[in-house]
Amino acid sequence: MINRSNLASLFEREKATFREQNPKSLAAYESADNLFGRVPMTWMNKKAGGFPIYFDRAQGNRIWDIDGHEYIDFALGDTGAMAGHSNPIVVDAICNRIQKLGGMTTMLPTEDAQWVAANLSERFGMAKWSFSLTATDANRWAIRLVRAITGKPKILVNAYCYHGSVDEALIVVGPDGEGMSRPGNVGSPVDVTETSRVAEFNDLVGLERQLANGDVAAVLMEPALTNIGIVLPEPGYLAGVRELTRKYDALLIIDETHTFSAGWGGMTRRDDLEPDVFIIGKAIAGGIPTGTYGLSAELADRVLSRTDLDLVDMGGVGGTLAGNPLSVAAMRATLENILTKENFEKMIDLATYFTDGVNALFEKYDLPWSINQLGARAEYRFAKPYPITGTAAYESADAELEDFLHLYLANRGIMLTPFHNMALMCPTTTVADVDRHHEVFEEAIGELVG
């Protein structure tokens, strides 16, 4: 359906427009000589236009860059700003902690921490909670705990999953059906097959084959893949995973850092999942860095009964800043007042409206593309039907087409997540914002197929 020569020509036009419209961002990037890769984090070099947009300020679902352009933000920090940018309630909580109460990091607990833990238990069902600075940190500590408790060495993940920079997760299914290092894996401390096993998402046969080896301490999984498109579970798949982990005496770690978009209690509450360990981060503190892991009552008791494990000093999680008063205050403000049941209902309804509109465009132009929705989040993929495994989703990627669409939208004031064709709704996103996306998106499609 897409003329590739036409696509290349359009892409060059959009890059020229981007360069012309953003002289201050270009100058800032070209002068960033002391930054590794010219950016604060190397992933910021995922840039369709040749250089990144430089941020000035943000409010709600709006971002302004240093060249003065305003964007409707559907990226929302890749879920980190699901509550919206600089929500006044979170800002007040942060200012109160800094200006009135003081003490952003003290190595001492606050009463807010118990409130947050109780709210997380109500949402996700886990009995005991501990905090970290990121979900990656929480995953790393969870992996240490399950290895200690089970005495087994390996962690099983899904191909093309996302659990931050956890070493054990950088494994994919190779051509022979067995695990191999994920392409581009940087500085692996050991061959990843020594620490991990892997199965395709939605493949219970492959999962059981790997679990049958008897060396898996835990399955670490997202209940829907989110970093390779949104790959949804097939009916019965998640229940089958839980059944197999119990059959082969492996624990189950559910990471809902991204799938929290499914609703007030994530997919764990919505789909009655029963993890032994639960991980979440990003969104729950309104943009302030945080992460947390929850343990079932049974697992918490098992861990605490092990007097041979150093859970306090260097054998413990570490992280002097983890659970600091500032991040805990931000978590309480966000969970209590913003990411509420009522707001999730509105956000999910709006994401459904977004999804329906994109589907209508695919049908109108007879495009072999598809879109999946996960609560308040939706993502389109250049394949139809939508892939049901991580490998199939990876193979359906079209980098040139993706970059063109991202740049086309950005040049007209619409921002998607840089690594995805993902749109996330926050409490201040409106129907008019979604309509504007669809208007610009249809213009892009029209140029591609015209």
Question: Total domains, how many?
Answer: 2
**How many helices?**
14
> Mean pLDDT, nearest integer?
96
The CATH class of the largest domain is Alpha Beta
Explained architecture:
The chain is built from 14 helices and 16 strands. Strand 6 (171-173) and strand 7 form a beta hairpin. It is 39% helix and 15% strand. The protein has 450 residues and is an alpha/beta fold. The longest helix has 24 residues, at 341-364. The strands form four sheets. It has a seven-stranded mixed sheet with strand order 4-12-11-10-9-5-8, with helices on both faces. A four-stranded mixed sheet has the order 1-2-3-15.
Give me some keywords for this one.
450 residues, 7-stranded mixed sheet, 14 helices, 2 domains, Aspartate Aminotransferase, domain 1, alpha/beta, Aspartate Aminotransferase, domain 2, 4-stranded mixed sheet
SSE arrangement:
Blueprint: H1 4-21, H2 23-30, E1 55-59, E2 62-65, E3 70-73, H3 88-101, H4 111-124, E4 128-132, H5 135-150, E5 154-158, E6 171-173, E7 179-181, E8 196-199, H6 204-211, E9 216-221, H7 237-247, E10 251-255, H8 266-270, E11 277-281, E12 291-295, H9 297-304, H10 325-337, H11 341-364, E13 370-374, E14 377-381, H12 390-395, H13 399-410, E15 414-415, E16 422-424, H14 431-449
Helix pairs in contact: 1-13, 3-10, 4-10, 6-7, 11-14
